[in-house]
Amino acid sequence: MLDEQAKKTMLRKIPHGLYVCGVKDGEEVNGFTASWVMQASFTPPLVVNCVKRDSGSHAMIQSSQVFALSVLAADQKAIAQNFFKPQRRVGNKFEDVEFYLGETGCPIISESLGYVECRVVGSVEQGDHTVFVGEVIAAGVHKEGDPLLLEKTGWQYGG
Q1: Is residue 66 part of a domain?
Q2: What is the C-alpha separation between 18 and 12, in angstroms, rounded?
Q3: How many domains does the chain have?
Q4: Phi and psi of 151, rounded to 5°?
């Protein structure tokens, strides 16, 4: 028998970084705060990025087959918060955030620790998220520092 409270407590103890996932579809760009991300392979270099299936960004990744992950620094909680809400509710999330378009055409946060750009090479649709498998096709370091961790924000996304 599944103890719902124990499940929630233990799943929330899995450590997660916070990233801004930049996406595009044609000329339109968007971004969202991602936390269910991890490296999955050395050769080729793969990452997995779990994206809520009913989001606009999910549709953009499915259409373009690319995404970029900007790794946020420990002091960039405000940037993560800016990208948490759906675009349809807040409009242009990049309005007050300096960014540039990477090789994939996806937005990258200029003040992040760095980034990886990925081409989708596979996906698994189960539950309320899709697991996108992305091959890293470009990467860059902007500055040194510690990454922002979900547990340090006081937020919870999991359970």
Answers
A1: yes
A2: 14
A3: 1
A4: -65, -25
